[in-house]
Inverse folding.
């Protein structure tokens, strides 16, 4: 899907986003609400109120990608946070989230990992 290096960060938008927004609208959210640079090469993931759709904003160096996924049934188990803005997750957690696994009901095994 996207080339994820160890330097790539993934941010989930806390709460619901109006997914009628596209390139400029999502980039504006990243700039003003997250205080991040949408052209940084990091991934920004958004969901709607019903949590049955997501959009990913990504800049690959030559242009901006907006990728979307709509579920036929059910909804994504979107992490809850009390803080507005963005929640940073790992690439493994994004894979689990997109596969329908609830991150709140999983836990990583204790092992050494160098901090990013």
């Amino acid at each position: 899907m996207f080339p994820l290096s160890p330097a790539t960060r993934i941010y989930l938008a806390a709460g619901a986003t109006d997914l009628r927004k596209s390139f400029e609208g999502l980039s504006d959210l990243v700039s003003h609400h997250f205080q991040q640079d949408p052209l940084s090469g990091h991934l920004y993931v958004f969901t709607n109120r019903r949590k049955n759709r997501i959009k990913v904003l990504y800049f690959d160096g030559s242009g901006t990608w907006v990728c979307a996924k709509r579920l036929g049934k059910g909804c994504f188990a979107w992490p809850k946070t009390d803080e507005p803005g963005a929640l940073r997750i790992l690439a493994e957690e994004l894979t689990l989230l997109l596969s329908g696994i609830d991150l709140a009901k999983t836990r990583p095994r204790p092992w050494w990992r160098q901090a990013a």
Summary: The beta strands are 10-13, 43-47, 53-59, 64-70, 86-89. Helices lie at 23-32, 91-98. The CA atoms of residues 34 and 85 lie 5 Å apart.
